[in-house]
Design a protein that fits this description.
about 260 residues; mainly alpha; 2 strands; about 0% strand
Length: about 260
Amino acid sequence: MTEALLLFLVGGIAGLLAGLLGIGGGIVLVPALIFLFESLSVPPEILTHLAVGTSLASIIFTGAASAWAHHRRKNVDWSIVWGMAPFIVIGAQIGAFLAGAIEGGDLKRLFGYFELLIAARMLLSWEGAPGAGRVSKRLLYPAGGLAIGIVSSLFGIGGGTLTVPLIVTLMGRPIKTAVGTSSAQGAVIAIFGAIGFVHQGWGHPSLPPGAWGYVSIPAALLIAAASAAAAPLGALLAHRIDPSYLSRFFGILLIGVGMRLIGLF
């Protein structure tokens, strides 16, 4: 029961972040799942892989709920979503393959360093003002889509940490459109990334009960229920408060989480 309540709480926080900041809730979900699975004695060799895969599976619902809420407010540029989607799909499969080839402890530390990079971006507010949008879509869609898909699938995030600044600075879209579009892309990333993790971990002898490959179905469903409910609230708050304050707060939090995953304390 304690584990279920924790998953529900973490899922709610992840959904709120997805709707409010356009970032994949995976930056919260993955470390939380790592710590939870550690307490449940999940073997170290599959610990981080299971956390990443489960995070991606839950983000399917988070991204869909957040995207629908932003779509209703006309803040999703579907031309960007569909233009990048084929390349994101390919990148998500590559990311899942790379994760499957990395040893569990190394993947955990790698995610810790990634958390520190995300913390720096959140603290420095790299989104900035809309750019001129002069970068050619012929270059931006394949290069950006592949990069977003690979990194997001590898680390179990929805992709907003890369997508939002890319849409704002290189495509010249306003921040609210970038957040909404990022949410829709997050659902695409999560679907195909989760499929990749199911495939990579299928039949592993150390998987816990209820796991499909590197995806814990019970954990993913609990997280998804909470995150899907909280994501529309985050989308609503995005129109009423300055998200930069919350962004900086979570940036400080992620520094501690990243250092813990790396093993500095």
